[in-house]
Please model this.
Amino acid sequence: MSLTHSNLTVAKFGGTSVANHEAMSRCARLILDNPEIRLVVVSASAGVTNFLVKLGNEQLSANEREYVLQQIRNIENSILNDLGRPAEVEQIIDELLVQLAETANQPDVLTSSKLKDEILSFGERMSSVLFAEVMNQVAADNISVAFDGRQVLKTDSSFGKAEPQVEATKQQAESLLSPLLEDKIVITQGFIGQDNFGNTTTLGRGGSDYSAALFAEAVDAFALQIWTDVPGIYTTDPRITDKARPIPEISFDEAAEMAIFGAKILHPATLIPAIRSGVKVFVGSSIEPEAGGTWISKTVDHRPAYRAVALRNDQTLITVKSPEMLHATGFLARVFAILAKHKLSVDLITTSEISVALTIDNPPNTPMAELTDACIQDLSGFCDVKVESDLALVAVIGNHVEYDDEEGGSGRIFSTVTDDQLRLICHGASKHNVCFLVKQGHAKDIVRDLHDDLFSA
Ligand code: ADP
Ligand code: ASP
Ligand code: MG
Model:
């Protein structure tokens, strides 16, 4: 097979696409039908990363830990059994499962973010080995090889949310990956990387999309395909309303806003490398590839007033208030310095003369920093602090949504969502979104109503 840089395609398969042997075989056939796909990035099999998070984050008894480990073994072994337990692959998976148990049993797991990332890496390390074997069995040929992507994807040491080192990653890809791609279909892991000291790092939950885009940039790919469980990006999460419609074509900036504001279909950082390298991105369903999907590119013919409604759960609202803030300088800087010290990044912010309200993401099943008592204590040192949780962020993504006019804009949005449902509004800072906080319990209904109103033809 000859590889030309004009058509090299990187394909990423998410957790449900590699959940079991049947799903993996479907993906293998998809790859074999598309000879331009040479580099494949896989997630952990569905469910595995959630179990791994438990091992690193929860105080478990020895029995409970063993139970979680057994759930993971069951998922991996079922794929291994369906493959006929080829000796070489069986040995690798057995070794990885033993190493995982050893790591999870270390006494400082709960306090070491380095160990947590090591634990999290096992899902992708196992699925990539199993997937390469599925490829070879489906092709009845030794066309595929599993490759340890940590040799290429270099990051800093921010465990749990590592930042990629783009130049180092490119150099490693050039020397280690590109030669392999000449005659093999290479299967590598999403989500994981390696810092300069040889430690395993992870890019944050859902990070395989981001890895795939980084790999695509590093090998100078022509296209990146993200294969998941829905045929493309929809006007809202199709699980919320059956009126959600697929979007055939969307611009980088609109899709990036959707990802940032919670459309789980793409990790929020996925489009950064894609925009940098100009690689076109396709999103489709590995279950029904013939159903088409969404192309994301720099320019699109059509830029509608409303593009999509996104929902992000698990928001925490912090309101800090100081009478001294009136005409005082440096108050915001002090607040932000404390949040930065506690590694919390702020999403929305609104201010009045004596108070500031800001939101932070507080998702479950992640090893990321949460709002801690220590942070609240630091803030309380110079202002009143109020914390509210069980909130969700709803964002309407579109073009020129900052204006309130007849055809589009925010007026129509706020005629559907009533004042008593709103906790906070951010409007005007971006021409691509209007967003607001609502009670989490009401969020899906609000998104459904808003979507059905904005997108009813
Ligand atoms: P994968 O494991 O393949 O990465 P994810 O579960 O992370 O898949 O993302 C796919 C899911 O994203 C879909 O099943 C869907 O429920 C959800 N989703 C949220 N917003 C959207 C949207 N606007 N369009 C399509 N899917 C969306
Ligand atoms: N396996 C990781 C997760 O579940 C990364 C990914 O699937 O994108 O978050
Ligand atoms: Mg995902």
